[in-house]
User: Fold this.
Amino acid sequence: MPVNVVLVHDEPDFLSAAAEALREAGHDVSVFRDPLTALDKLEVHRTEVLVSCLKYAPGLPHGISLARMVRYRHPKTKVIFTAELKDAPYTEGIGEFLPSPVDIARLVATVDRLTHRAGEIATPEPC
Assistant:
């Protein structure tokens, strides 16, 4: 069953690569370049996994604020942050952390693990 994943990141190359890999893994993916646009969608549509960078342009909420706003409405949403390794302590207790540059295969594996899809094997068709 597909998992609804929302990617929010300010790097278009990361968004493109991550979205493609997650879609190939069978997930439904929505992509946003800034947290405010993503928040508009997330206020009305529940998502299972939010992937967000920590820092955005000045004047925009940072990734932790976005995660808290999303979790206020949808407490079961899983969160994965991407940022420089030095920023990892800021995310403790809020979500998973993947250091930048993000290994896309690790991102897909983390989404699968958080949504209990890790090791999922397709049921063969009966003969």
Summary: Residues 121-127 have pLDDT under 50 and may be disordered.
